[in-house]
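*** Fold description ***
***
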Amino acid sequence: MFEVIKEEQNVKTVKISLDHEAIEEARGKVYNELSQSVKVKGFRKGKVPKNLLNVVIGMEKINNMIKEDVADMALDVLYENEKFKDFNIMLPPALASVELGEVAEIVFEIHIYPDVEIESLEGEEIEIPEMSDEGLESDMKKELERMREENVILKPKDENEIIETGDQVDIDYHLTGKDEEPRQFEVVVKEPNEGKIFAELVGKKVGDSIEFVDEKDENKTAYTMNVKEVYTRTLADLNDDFAKMIDNEAETLEALKEKLRRKIKGSFDEFVKSFEINNILDRLEKKTKLNISEHSIDLFVNHMIMRQKEDKQYKKSLKDFKGDEKAYKESLKNEITSYLKLKGAVEKIAKEKKIEVSEDEIFGKAKEYYQSLNMSDERLKVTLTKDNELRDRIENEILHNKVAEELLKSVKIITKKIEEEEPQDPKGEEEKEEKSNE
């Protein structure tokens, strides 16, 4: 028999009653298993008398084993109950008590996802960035320079030629005084005043060695560096030929520039849309109140920690909090509370507004995720069928985005142009300081 005997906030206390036959079945199973596993001199396996097992094992332990079996039976009954299936379960049922008499009475705590109250977002203001024409041109030019760098022409220098600013240098290095396999890196030499390593390299030749101390490292690690190769670097001219080399669809440099502008603007628009969605969902979470038991949150925290320990991730997570378990648990509490607020709010709004996620939408989003793997549609469908966690994650992402889009209709969007920071003039700053001292 299934009975809800208590309800408080998001916790339902449920009693499952089993007849006496269930108790006897559990008792017989326990004694049979003990008889098969316990070795008693003079008796074969499976033939040890119950009264002797009571002495050897102890009645208290045997009764606890019977209770465990009865609880397992009750759990099966619970999961099969239609009323239980309607509960929006947040955590696995927690066993509260087992009483054995004429009948067995097993009590479980059922922690369901909590109800939420949402304050209106009507009239809220969201400020979003807007790209200026100047900013678009600046980003386009940076992208062109990146392309020039990617297609730089390298010409090896003779061994007797010195390293100059702008050269590319291939270097082998190892810790000074250590007999170890050298590691390699390459560097484009900047002006000597831009870094100690550049000052050391300028004027050197292939085959020269440099002793370099990393001043930024608190241990002041010393390295021995050997110059292996030196190259002059020649960047391609920005012209129509360069454009054709980069993109065979671009006939002219101007066509390439226009294509880059569209790409940059498209990426920026995607960023802004993501910014809007994250912003409105953040507002929604802050405007949501949970009707949840503190006990539920504590159990959720312990459940997460248990899973981390199983996955051997707990110690790693704790390191970020310098081993302070109390601080880590408090952080998990806040994280769980935010998660439950947003989940509850999104699902409530989706239900009210009749917002749903179709199988086609889930498949389409999954296809975006796996595009780089060239996975076939058939294989992807099988993956979604087998991997419930992946499917749920995708469905939740789509639902959150749809609810956010709906909420954005009722808020005021304010655009603000991105202003590029002007480089400070050291001389100007000095003049200001002198005037303030006068």
